[in-house]
Amino acid sequence: MKSQKSIDPAVLELLPKAALDGVETVWDRYEAQQPQCGFGSLGVCCRHCVQGPCRIDPFGNGPKAGICGASADVIVARNLLRQVAAGAAAHVDHAYDVVEALELAAKGEINYTITDETKLHQVAKGLGLDISGKSKAELALEVVEVAYSDLANHGKSPVKWLMANAPKERIAVWASLGILPRNPDREIREAMHQTTMGMDADPVNLVLATAKQGLVDGYSGLKLATDMQDILFGTPTPVVTEANLGVLKEDHVNLIVHGHVPILSEKIVYWAGKLQDEARLAGAKGILVSGICCTGNEVLMRKGIPLVTNFLAQELAIVTGAVDAMVVDVQCIMPSLTQVASCYHTEIITTMPIVKLPGATHVPFTLENADEAAQEIVRKAISSFLRRDPKKVQIPNYKRKVMAGFSVEAIVGALSAVDPVDPLKPLIDNIVNGNILGVVATVGCNNVKVTHDLMHVELVKELIKNNVLVVATGCSAHALAKAGLMNSEGTEAYAGEGLKAVLTAIGQAAGLGAPLPPVLHMGSCVDNSRIGDLVTAIAKYLNVDSALLPIAASAPEPQHEKALSIGTWAVTMGLTTHLGVVPPVLGSKAVAELLTQGLSGVIGGKFYIETDALKAAHGLIEDIRAKRKNLGLPS
Ligand code: BF8
Ligand code: SF4
Q: What are the strands of the beta sheet with 606-609, ordered from one edge?
């Protein structure tokens, strides 16, 4: 049992207020769920047919097979495959929405523009398209056509987005294992089919199918979504802002964007800017848009919008009593939000046909009515401000400075200040000489089973102290931002000497007058594709398989099925991928061993499960040292 709910001082300040205000939070509901079901925790429960539910006795005294004969190995492997497929489905669906937006924008049918022509050219060239003499719109439509053709591929050829972007050594490995995905929709459907009653009973085959879903996620979900979003809204460049609940302003209309797809939040940011006068007429000093979860990361990366908080504290944002409206799109939106909001004046606004919350106001948001809907939402926030009860307002005075916006392009841009001809060289040279021991990507969620943010922060402090450069996305990035690890002071305070020297030299050359932060914020969870691009670029530069690089990944506090899919993709990239919360696989020794050991022999990467932050940091450092040694680098 964890000893403390959170390490975030703003959360610790608001929890007693929540109790006083009669608000039930995720922590209360977690307590009410204790003890959680042992069968479910181990993954040995099956409900895939109506003869069930079946469960296997993990101690070997009771049933050893489900009614159909499925063993613990089969049940665990099937459950995992379904979870990873569900995560991939969420990302592919997200990507699809943005492909559609790019199509309609290119046709001039909606009020969105193609912002980043350079990225468009880069993506088009990567896909092998001829870019000469084509207008932005023509080229965008060709790119969209390729994206749709991946979804409509009824043949056996692999996903084009993967073939265009993955390292060639990896493609060869995946091909040899027979896990190159074809059409993402077809693969996700196949995973549902493969796991239904009376189908695959071979745990090895099921684990390989899971790896294939990781590839669906990585290329037809993450990479596709990021490419489309960059083309539409721009590739991020460095921005400076702040993070934590202290960004909320008592004298402003506070409108929070929460969810994942920037199609909505970009419009909200735009219209909040335009309607400032209406807010002033209502007695506010202006409108402050701030973000939760990944849509927060999206508008942070491109617009410098401040971050309010991450997944686990979404309810507490409302408990400040200062949030006039919270508008949500998709994913990671707690169904409890309307219940919490009912204790305050906060208006919860849903926008998507597949996410409705009883008690919320639903403003249907479509590509066609985006401007009208965004204005309506901003105006709702303004009128909600008039209903705010000042006696209920308590904004914790905690926030930290954040430097973000580190797309691969932005990282290369900063490095160009050191070596304009060969920008990756300074980074690679410093990895080779050991000033930078290696790179760890921390990604993923918060999980109420562990102390909020603790694993992210403790793990990363130990890594950077040992000269490991950290890049982060998702709610991990929020946690590290709130802990002051995304600014120059964080480098001074926490980075080891080698890392500090490199970050200082790059910061000086780039004209910052201060070091780069020790943790580079690379964006939302779909922006894990940026980390994939960085890994791919380094592998290509050194002409080695990415599985050999001193690079690892960690999801310190994973909760969502999407985090499992992303982690699976990282494993297929050949990375050792740490999980700080045990996924429901321990009911099968065979499956757990495959994931943590067996897979590495065939795919190069593996899962590494460790629930102690310091041990995990040192496990990852050991892994990095072993890879360095293997490459003949000083370790
Ligand atoms: O896609 S990290 S809790 S917000 S799932 Fe959700 Fe996890 Fe946060 Fe973003 Ni990613
Ligand atoms: Fe039980 Fe098999 Fe049906 Fe699962 S598929 S519920 S193990 S009978």
A: 519-523, 468-473, 438-442, 551-555, 576-579, 606-609
Which positions ≥6 away from 316 have C-beta within 8 Å?
10, 11, 14, 15, 18, 25, 245, 309
Name the residue of 45, 55, 67 whose CB sits within 8 Å of the most ligand 2 atoms, as the mutation to test its pocket: 67
Average pLDDT of 20-30?
A: 98
Nearest ligand 2 atom, CA 53: 6
Token pair for 513: 């007058």
Q: What is the longest distance spanned by two Cα atoms in the chain?
A: 72
Whether the Cβ atoms of residue 470 and residue 387 lie closer than 8 Å to each other = no
Residue owning the nearest CA to atom 7 of ligand 1: 445
Helix ranges (DSSP H) in 513-580: 528-542, 561-572
Q: Which domains, and CATH codes, for the chain?
A: 83-233 (1.20.1270.30), 245-392 (3.40.50.2030), 401-630 (3.40.50.2030)
User: Does residue 345 have its Cβ closer than 6 Å to ligand 2?
Assistant: no
SS3 123: helix
Find the 543 Cα to ligand 2 centroid distance in Å: 47
Q: Are strands 400-404 and 239-243 parallel, antiparallel or unpaired?
A: antiparallel
- For residue 297, give the ligand 1 atom closest to its CA: 9
The protein residue whose alpha carbon is closest to atom 3 in ligand 2 is 49
Distance from C-alpha of 110 to C-alpha of 100, rounded to nearest angstrom: 11
When the pLDDT of each residue in the chain is averaged and rounded to a whole number, the result is 97
pLDDT tens digits, one per residue of 480-504: 999 999 999 999 999 999 999 999 9
Which residue's alpha carbon is at the smallest distance from atom 9 of ligand 1? Answer: 294
**Residue 161 neighbours by CB under 8 Å, 6+ apart:** 127, 146, 147, 150, 219, 220, 223, 224, 227
Shortest-distance Cα residue to atom 7 of ligand 2: 66
Neighbours of 398 (CB within 10 A): 17
CA 293 to ligand 1: nearest atom: 4
Question: Closest-lying ligand to the alpha carbon of 556?
Answer: 1
Predicted structure pTM score: 0.97
Give the gyration radius of the chain's Cα atoms. 24
453 in Cβ contact with 446 (< 8 Å): yes
Positive or negative torsion for Cα 83, 84, 85, 91: positive
Distance 567 CA to ligand 2 centre (A): 27
Residues 6 or more apart in contact with residue 438 via CB below 8 angstroms = 431, 468, 469, 549, 550, 551, 552, 621, 624, 627, 628
Cβ atoms of 8 and 482 within 8 Å: the answer is: yes
Alpha-carbon 581 to chain mean position:
16
Is the distance from the beta carbon of residue 74 to the nearest atom of ligand 2 less than 6 Å?
no
Banded pLDDT at 2 (limits 50, 70, 90): low
pLDDT of residue 59: 87
Tell me if 70 CB under 6 Å of ligand 2: yes
Place of tokens 């927060």: 296
Q: Is the peptide bond before 634 cis (omega within 30 degrees of 0)?
A: no
pLDDT in tens, 512-529: 899 999 999 999 999 999
